[in-house]
Amino acid sequence: MKTTLTVNGQLRHLDADPRTTLLDALRNHLNLTGSKKGCDHGQCGACTVIVNGRRINSCLSLACMHDSDEVVTIEGIGTPEHLSALQQAFVSHDGFQCGFCTPGQICSATAMLDEVEAGWPSHVSADVTAKQDLTVEEISERMSGNLCRCSAYPNIVDAIMDVAGSAKR
Amino acid sequence: MTLHLKMDDRDDRYRLDDMVQGLVGTPTDRPEGKLKVSGKASYAMDVLPDDVCHGVLVRATITHGKLRDLDTEAVRALPGIRTVITGKRMLRNPAQGMAGKAPVQGSDDIAYFGQPVALVVADTLEQARHGALALRLTLEAKGDAVVNPHDPDASVEMPKKEQVLIGDLDEAMKKAAFSVDQHYTTPGHSSAAMEPHASVAHWHGDSVTLRGSYQMLAYNKAELADALGISEKNVRILAPYVGGGFGAKLGISPEAVAAALASKELGVPVAVSMTRQQVFETTMRRSETNQRIRLAADENGLLTGIGHEALVSNLPGEDFSEPVTQATPFLYRGENREIVHKIARIHRTCAGSVRAPGEAVGLTVLEIAMDELAEKAGIDPVELRKKNIPDQDPTDQIPFSSHALAEALDEGARRFGWDKRNPKPRSTRDGEWFVGMGMASAVRVNMLIESKARVTLSADGRAMIETDMTDIGTGTYAILGQIAGEMLGLPMEDVETRLGDTEFPPASGSGGSFGAASNGTAVLLGCEEIRRQLCKKLNCEDADMTLKGGYAIVGNKRIALRDVLDGDTLVGEGHVQPGKAEKKVRQATYGSYFAEVGVNSVTGETRLRRMLGVFAAGRILNAKTARSQCLGGMTFGIGMALTEELIHDRRDGHMVNHDFAEYHLPVNADVPQIEVVLLEERDEWANPLQAKGIGELGICGAAGSIVNAIYNACGVRVRQLPATLDKVIDGLDEAT
């Protein structure tokens, strides 16, 4: 099935089995293996990518549903030579161990900061209409869709806190 | 060329302390970190050859019986299907850790619900998945499958060497001023590493290369060769990055053998990744445990007797059994001791190593019992533990090596504000929450495993480490680079570490917390050999040579290493083996946990508010990665205390909650900003690094501190883990 999408700023043409998930399309057809498959059921968040500005589990949607969509994967956020501020903060704060959930965590955190900027409340927000401060509780809550069995959670929170206040992300 | 060390005695040379590069111990960033955060670290399924075929495993849906037939013809007729693999070489379950040979093989005999019996291979993943779903199996169930460890029909073994009887515990219990005699249960656990078990196999002639997600490559190579019936020489395994293991990837698993068989038949590379459900069902589970603890103490709270009985389970024919009582013989004093270890043979998913087999669940329960004793005796829980620290191993009657339990208890109590705890349950309230504090000791046995590494100092003055060691998130890339940099006087960026390839010298692998110390020692020895060669070139003694920042300093001369090498490349291999040292002294790591919880008085829900761990594990090689290992261990403890529980259907033993929607790992919001304190320590008996393992220490007993905090908060003593809200709320009425 022919699908055209913009991935990390580049127009990509795909001709894949209609059963192909966005995650498998990225990994197996477009050779973007930074996004990981931890559960294939939307339960772990390792496959998180940003579609049209919002974070989604790429394993839960079919590639053919994303015709003309804009997709950003971890490869589009930064490279080893030019890390984003969040990526660098994850390294400095040891916001990972095995590293398998990390691309998903960073895509998720990148989009999450935009959600906060746009004034979205969360389950732990005391006032859902107020501008949200990025407290430890807010970050933990908003990052709870991304599992990390090595449990770098406290370090992930520190890394995000480090970057959240500054405009450098 | 090879410097060999058998660890027969203590090593007082403190070689690392002679060095001046200043790398070892520092919180250096992981050198592979930039690759991991940018999606460039390549895990098992990240480098697929262009002509790769995809395989999907098919599982048995009976508990015990025979696979009589498979309708492969119908599946082969589907688009893209290339082959269906089944037969006598398929693995029943993964190899146990360090087996070095194939586990039970053959798809005809089914021993548990979920056993992989076939692999459907197709051009694409989508086609293979469809084929696997469509494959019809003819299965013949035996009606007599025992699936519960308490079933009276279960065959129960009591291996003689696992039982201990010293003195007369019954008599000690009778005479005790204070005693505890309670039963406890812990459920099965899943390692649940984020990367599923996955393998890509590719044959070249008679040799197979397997890119997999494995922890112990030297053993895995032997296991795969044995399973395929070929020579080890014809097997190469690659695992440069491993997306977590926690014990589940110690031994070669069914997908690896199936991928290799399919690739051989088709003549193309074949990739097989388990689904998350298959990871739960067909890789190792931690056994559920049924434990009885007896504690006898005199009027001062001094233990006179300890009894620890455990019933665990495994499949027939498996030699692993969860060593629940591993630390009980030496942690606390007491002249009268009884250890009982029973194994029920049942038809559930194979039981094997999950992070800290033994202490993870055994110590947790012992520490809950100690909290019960503290309350009965009216002694502070920290004091009770401190006064029961023995002078030597009370069972084997040998001295301890470094032992910092008392210091960890004191330091933890001081930092956590333990003096503010009211020992009376339900004395602190915060709105609708009961608030309480609990604590527990940490202990984990320490091991050294044979390991080799090669260090090359090339003519340009840069060093390279090669070993088939793995980094499963444990920080191997960082700490090996730091050790070599320290010994050779090089900054981190001038040391390259190559791991995860069985073409390199065989290492201990990652498991049992022994990887860093064992393989780190091999690297240290390799560097010592290179230093010997450098001294020869400089015509000096090692003691007169300082290496720093890429220079050698001898007397008043400072010479660039490049100039010393003068075009030569130096190679040093290190080889360490365990020796008599481990019999002469009792080696273990120690620590303490302090937890504060809120228990909701309306719902019975527990929320962890604060947690502190204080740990002593010999020399800390990297303060950053060691801390992260402790955070990870403690979080496993949070899961064990509050949410994690494998549930098996009582009728057929099948795993009911086989994915992350139903088996609840702690998520970010469940984990507060845990504090970790690493105590300064050296253990000369452990190895020449004076370092001990730290990867598992953080889970050993951690859940106990949380369960004890729940009791202090609300007066409900949970003895059946996890402390889910149903159990707590049931007790809330009784406790009022």
UniProtKB/TrEMBL annotation, chain A:
Pfam families, sorted:
Fer2, Fer2_2
Instruction: Drop me one GO molecular function for this one.
Output: 2 iron, 2 sulfur cluster binding
Q: Which domain of life is it from?
A: Bacteria
GO CC annotations on file = periplasmic space
Give the 2Fe-2S ferredoxin-type domain ranges.
1-77
User: Keywords for this entry?
Assistant: 2Fe-2S, Iron, Iron-sulfur, Metal-binding, Oxidoreductase
Q: Does the keyword Iron apply?
A: yes
Protein name, please?
2Fe-2S iron-sulfur cluster binding domain-containing protein
UniProtKB/TrEMBL annotation, chain B:
**In this protein, which residues make up the domain named Aldehyde oxidase/xanthine dehydrogenase a/b hammerhead?**
38-143
InterPro entries registered for this protein in UniProt: Ald_Oxase/Xan_DH_a/b, Ald_Oxase/Xan_DH_a/b_sf, Ald_Oxase/xanthine_DH-like, AldOxase/xan_DH_MoCoBD1, AldOxase/xan_DH_MoCoBD2, AldOxase/xan_DH_Mopterin-bd_sf
Q: Which GO terms describe its molecular function?
A: iron ion binding; oxidoreductase activity
The record's SUPFAM superfamilies line, in alphabetical order, gives: CO dehydrogenase molybdoprotein N-domain-like, Molybdenum cofactor-binding domain
Please give the name of this protein. Xanthine dehydrogenase family protein molybdopterin-binding subunit
Q: Which organism is it from?
A: Oryzicola mucosus
